[in-house]
Design a protein that fits this description.
CATH topology of the largest domain: Rossmann fold
CATH superfamily of the largest domain: P-loop containing nucleotide triphosphate hydrolases
Keywords: ATP-binding, Coiled coil, DNA-binding, Endonuclease, Hydrolase, Nuclease, Nucleotide-binding, RNA-binding, rRNA-binding
EC number: 3.1.-.-, 3.6.4.-
Largest sheet: 6 strands, mixed
Strand content: 15-25%
Protein name: Endonuclease MutS2
Number of strands: 23
Helix content: 40-55%
GO biological process, one term: rescue of stalled ribosome
CATH class of the largest domain: Alpha Beta
Number of helices: 22
Shape: extended
Distance between the termini: 74 Å
Number of domains: 6
Subunit structure: Homodimer. Binds to stalled ribosomes, contacting rRNA.
Radius of gyration: 44 Å
């Protein structure tokens, strides 16, 4: 099996990848890209898979910013082009489609080639689009939008059509004069003009045949009316018909000439359609990813021979099966590699095991096909050279020998293929020549060993799992056999897993638990359904004591695991609280240190200013001494006093410099709460706290007629009363507002989670209001519309927003224009 055929078609069908291709095809724009979507197959080369993923990511980013980007009016004209290349003549409608395709390609090339460095693959594809402006312009001049050849196609055609019109008018005028003449009034069946065999005739009564000289072209069914071409108009009819034939010949000549030009450019036009199809497939992959809320997985280079890594090569976070209804599917967390490479899912036959099996295989196929996967990040997948899936009807009550034989035949083929793949590669296997590591393989076995005697089936399953471990594959298997639970527990490289089951509702929760084997729950279910407790106890007595102890042990492990999970969650909450208080204390300490440093600097500056004043006085005294008669003794005394003052000043500065130890912290105050009166220290205004965000360490403060979001570090609790119990009235002061912030009129929120919007958008609106902006442009993208809904709900109730509307031409529904209230 060559590298290009490593993943058999049977695995694609079993894992329903063909259904995914059908759904993907619905997002394509024309038949050429639809063919690519329906024939899409997973790649097995690392570089190719990464290139496909990168192209899909670029296309999605482009559509999120410019949703209207498309291939325009392009059509799949490859068959028509090949017909022209073989000498065939194309009709006007087909030529019009070829011109529209070339024009769409030129427009798309122009648009994509202007993209920035985030879109290297799209730019490269756009640059490969051929440019054939002469052909499209020639078709535009000759063929109208309705596919008809225009008079301007050639001077000859224009002349002929003019002569055709003149001849036709003359013919009609002559016929009109004849049918309205009194000479023929009695001979005509009725005064009309009609056509027979492409020639204009008049209806004449059979009884008056001799009164009208001419050629009979037809007669009515009753024989009472003859359709005669009068001899007087035969030459006019002939002239009109001759000119029509000449016109048709000229039209055919023009179509032939244009078809020859198309045939000469057949290779370029075919390449254009192929490139447009590749681009449209990328757009379809992006649209499907957006519709399924998919993300780009990390594609890792992993092989069984690689040294162990702390991060497993396969990890799926909240993975969802893309074919299950979004409102009912339960996400699963699953990983393979690292501590274990094989996962054994045990438990009752409830359907959840097979869903986990298919989800893993299908998402691996999608990733290698270049599709983003319906899972959260972080999700990572290796590139598998082999993916095998043997999944039967798990809901079947009876399994015949033929079913067991079919499953076993599939398993044998899988093991033989994987064993042969690890042998020395042949010279014809080009893929293996440059990479001698064992190929990566994913194996999915449903109900391993089922359909035969339980003892023999469990033994076979253990042997098969052992061989898979030797081959170094990653795999998942499901089984009913309780014996395999202990085998997985004691065998390195194998891990137990189960699908949780709700005893109360008698239904699976579809949540996958790795590390805990599944329980049968048969007796518990029977008890919930109302079976006689005596029968329940009697059945329990029939169970082997060791099996009963294992089931009780599993139940105890599950309870301990749930308790440990709850304790871990509580510990995590306490840790987060401690980190928040630590950060707050550090911020307060930093603010105190900054205030102290500012006070120290102010004192130092004041003393230095005094020293400069004293020195200036000394210089003035010396100048006066030179001009006036001042005793030297008086001057020496003045200098001594100055020296003393300077020494005292220097000592004061030194005392300030040595005070490096921070003052003891003030008594701890209770945390700020909603309703507290506080002072915003940066602007010196008082207000009331209306909301607190502990995570961001910020508070929303109502200050007069507007709200502002500020950090805890910028708040000081406002004292309502002085120490003597009297109401405290703050002294009058001049408030210096901070400088107007430099705020952009555009605020980009693409990629945000909905929970991030409220606080960050509120801060931006406050800054925009303070900056005096009248209108702002909020970019949230279209996507699923969830982010747009959150943004507009916030704007609807925000006190600083007077109105808002869609972006219109400036971004459509991906942009919201908000008008702020007047200051």
């Amino acid at each position: 099996m060559s590298a290009g055929m490593s993943i058999p078609e049977s695995s694609l069908i079993t894992l329903e990848f063909d259904v995914i291709r059908d759904r993907l095809a619905q997002y394509t724009a024309f038949s050429a890209s639809r063919e690519l979507a329906l024939s899409l197959t997973p790649a097995t080369d690392l570089a190719e898979v990464r290139r496909r993923q990168a192209l899909t990511a670029e296309a999605r980013l482009l559509l999120e910013e410019w949703p209207e980007v498309s291939i325009g009016g392009a059509r799949d004209v490859r068959r028509a082009v090949q017909h022209a290349a073989r000498g065939g003549i194309l009709d006007g409608t087909t030529l019009r489609e070829i011109a529209a395709t070339l024009q769409s390609a030129a427009l798309l090339r122009q648009r994509l080639s202007r993209l920035d460095e985030r879109f290297p693959l799209l730019i490269d594809l756009a640059n490969t689009l051929p440019v054939i402006p002469s052909l499209s312009e020639a078709i535009d001049r000759a063929i109208g939008d309705d596919g008809q050849v225009l008079d301007s196609a050639s001077p000859t055609l224009a002349r002929l059509r003019h002569e055709v019109r003149v001849a036709f008018n003359r013919l009609q005028e002559r016929l009109q004069s004849m049918i309205h003449s009194s000479a023929l009034a009695g001979a005509l069946q009725e005064p009309i003009i009609t056509v027979r065999n492409g020639r204009y005739v008049i209806p004449v009564k059979a009884s008056h045949r001799r009164e009208v000289r001419g050629l009979v072209h037809d007669q009515s069914g009753s024989g009472a009316t003859l359709y005669i071409e009068p001899m007087a108009i035969v030459e006019l009819n002939n002239r009109w018909r001759e000119l029509q034939s000449a016109e048709a010949e000229e039209v055919q000549r023009i179509l032939s000439t244009l078809s020859d030009q198309v045939g000469a450019a057949a290779n370029l036009i075919t390449s254009t359609v192929n490139t447009l199809a590749t681009l449209d497939l990328a757009f379809a992959l992006a649209r499907y990813a957006i519709a399924t809320r998919s993300t780009a997985p990390e594609i890792v280079d992993w092989r069984p021979d690689d040294p162990p890594s702390p991060e497993p090569p396969l990890r799926l976070t909240r993975a969802r099966h893309p074919l299950l209804p979004a409102e009912t599917v339960v996400p699963i967390d699953l990983w393979l590699g690292g501590e274990f490479s094989l996962l054994l899912i045990t438990g009752p036959n409830t359907g959840g095991k097979t869903v986990a099996l298919k989800t893993t295989g299908l998402l691996a196929l999608m990733a290698q096909a270049g599709m983003q996967i319906p899972a959260d990040q972080p999700s990572r997948l290796p590139v598998f050279q082999y993916i095998f899936a043997d999944i039967g009807d798990e809901q079947s009550i009876e399994q015949s020998l033929s079913t067991f034989s079919s499953h076993m035949a599939n398993i044998i083929r899988v093991l033989q293929t994987l064993t042969a793949a690890q042998q020395m590669p042949s010279e014809s296997d080009a893929y293996a020549l440059f990479d001698d590591r064992r190929p990566a393989a994913l194996v999915l076995f449903d109900e391993l060993g089922a359909g035969t005697d339980p003892v023999e089936g469990a033994a076979l399953a253990r042997a098969i799992i052992g061989r898979l471990l030797e081959l170094g594959v990653l795999g998942i298997a499901t089984t009913h056999y309780a014996e395999l639970k202990a085998f997985a527990y004691t065998t390195p490289g194998v891990q137990n897993a189960s699908v949780e089951f709700d005893i109360e509702t008698l239904a699976p929760t579809y949540r996958l638990s790795i590390g805990i084997p599944g329980r049968s729950n048969a007796l518990a279910i029977a008890a919930r359904l109302g079976l006689d407790p005596t029968l329940i106890e009697q059945a329990r007595s029939f169970i082997d004591r060791k099996e009963a102890q294992v089931e009780d042990l599993l139940a105890g492990i599950q309870r301990e695991r749930d308790a440990a999970a709850a304790a871990l969650q509580r510990a995590e909450e306490l840790r987060l609280d401690a980190e928040r208080y630590r950060d707050r204390l550090a911020a307060e300490q930093q603010a105190f240190a900054a205030e102290r440093a500012a006070a120290l600097e102010a004192a130092r500056a004041e003393i230095e200013a005094e020293l400069r004043e004293v020195r200036q006085q000394l210089r003035r005294l010396r100048e006066e001494f030179r001009t006036v008669n001042i005793s030297r003794q008086w001057l020496e005394e003045a200098e001594k006093r100055l020296a003393t003052t300077a020494e005292q000043s220097q000592q004061a500065v030194a005392r300030l410099n040595v005070q490096t130890q921070p003052a003891p912290p003030p008594p701890a105050e209770k945390p700020l709460q909603v309703g507290d009166q506080v002072q915003v220290t940066s602007i010196g205004l008082n207000g009331e706290i209306v909301a607190i965000d502990e995570e961001d360490q910020t508070a929303t403060v109502q200050v007069g007629g507007f709200r502002m979001t500020v950090s805890f570090n910028d708040l000081k609790r406002a004292k309502g009363k002085s120490d003597d119990g009297q109401r405290f009235t703050p002294p009058a002061r001049t408030v210096h507002l901070p400088p107007t912030p430099d705020v952009s009129m555009t605020f980009d929120m693409r990629g945000w989670r909905a929970a991030e919007v409220s606080d960050r958008l509120d801060r931006y609106l406050n800054d925009a209001y303070l900056a005096g902006l009248h209108q702002v442009r909020l970019i949230h993208g279209k996507g699923t519309g969830a982010l747009r809904q959150v943004v507009r709900e916030l704007l609807a109730g925000h006190p600083l927003v007077a109105s808002f509307s869609s972006g219109g031409r400036d971004g459509g529904d991906g942009v919201t224009i908000a008008t702020l209230v007047d200051r």
